[in-house]
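User: Just a sanity check before I run the rest of the batch. Below are the structure tokens for the first item. I only need the designed sequence back.
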């Protein structure tokens, strides 16, 4: 694990031996992200995962700054290019995030969020038995209270198509998702 200032960088490989040159390149590129967080309280943690799948070189970087997570992934034929593109994507996401926050505070307005109708729940019984897929991974994480606008920003930073969060207004777990038309949908539980 490398430490630069307040940044901790962990570089791991999966199905790939991380050479000293590759590690140094990843650490050098990722450490440049620290400049976007000059006022960070506490350490900035960067997890870099380098892997190879079917001949494709994959770089994945997850950056944690306090409660903010930013994630990007890049797939190319060259690991160095994958790392470079991955860091560029995170830089774009962070700049976009900071711009939205600045506009939000300057205008005094909240970001608009589409209050999509809840997706139809899958009926139990026969349809559940016909399901082809299976659960291959379980992920546990802390659900933090936030408003819908903050959840949209966090989902965009993670580059996910959905985001699970505790709605600060209703105190219930909600799911935010990106719709095919580019807007957002919000799934709210309806407890009977």
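Assistant: Here's the designed sequence for the first item:
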């Amino acid at each position: 694990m490398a430490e630069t200032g307040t940044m901790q960088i962990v570089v791991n490989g999966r199905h790939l031996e991380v050479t000293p040159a590759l590690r140094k390149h990843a650490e050098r590129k990722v450490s440049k992200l620290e400049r976007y967080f000059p006022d960070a309280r506490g350490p900035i943690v960067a997890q870099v995962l380098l892997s190879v799948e079917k001949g494709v070189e994959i770089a994945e970087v997850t950056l944690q700054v306090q409660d903010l997570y930013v994630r990007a992934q890049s797939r190319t034929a060259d690991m160095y290019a994958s790392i470079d593109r991955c860091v560029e994507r995170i830089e774009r996401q962070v700049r976009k995030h900071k711009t939205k926050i600045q506009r939000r505070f300057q205008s005094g307005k909240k970001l608009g969020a589409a209050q999509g109708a809840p997706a139809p729940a899958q009926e139990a019984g026969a349809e559940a038995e016909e399901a082809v897929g299976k659960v291959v991974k379980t992920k546990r994480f802390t659900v933090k209270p936030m408003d819908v606008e903050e959840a949209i920003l966090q989902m965009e930073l993670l580059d996910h198509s959905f985001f699970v969060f505790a709605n600060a207004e209703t105190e219930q777990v909600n799911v935010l998702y990106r719709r095919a038309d580019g807007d957002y949908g919000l799934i709210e539980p309806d407890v009977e």
